[in-house]
């Protein structure tokens, strides 16, 4: 195998090592989603999303390990399978990205609205239903602190900086629904960035895999020609 093919092999091994690390990162991120879903009273399908992200991370990890073994052994059939698997993986990730950007947006928005409506009904009956979100996200009410004035409730300490409502300036201005939506958008942004990095890297990996496959096949033909 020539110098160029050796370089491609080493680059393919390096790329698959990076894919393994990113696959593990996705698994950890999916677990974070599941933990977050268990703690949140607002159901937005985080447990399903977490399961899908973990599954994607596991698949990426398996394909990366398979790609490393195929490159090390310079096995043409394995390299061809690897290239095909990477192409399918890229298409799957593009589908996930489309769902994260457009397909689930309306559904998530509807779930957030419904969840906070339930919490606000509970708040009307017994104070403290929103306290967890107010302390966590530094927000007040569903839309703003004015929500409490509308239902003639005093602004709770969870709405204030350090739980001390000294004056109006110490009250959080942002509503919890907007704060929670921003928190979710930040999590989805991390997922999108990791996925796009993987898609770009996997496209390069598929090209390197094909180049190595072609090089191994050509070398095999030359060897057969010499023996003939």
Automatic annotation (TrEMBL):
Keywords: Disulfide bond, Membrane, Transmembrane, Transmembrane helix. The chain crosses the membrane at residues 12-35, 47-72, 79-100, 189-213. Disulfide bonds join 139-176, 140-160. One of its GO terms (cellular component) is plasma membrane. It is found in: Membrane. Pfam families: Tetraspanin. It is a multi-pass membrane protein. The keyword RNA-binding does not apply. Its main location: membrane. SUPFAM superfamilies: Tetraspanin (SSF48652). Belongs to the tetraspanin (TM4SF) family. This is Tetraspanin. It comes from Drosophila kikkawai (Fruit fly).
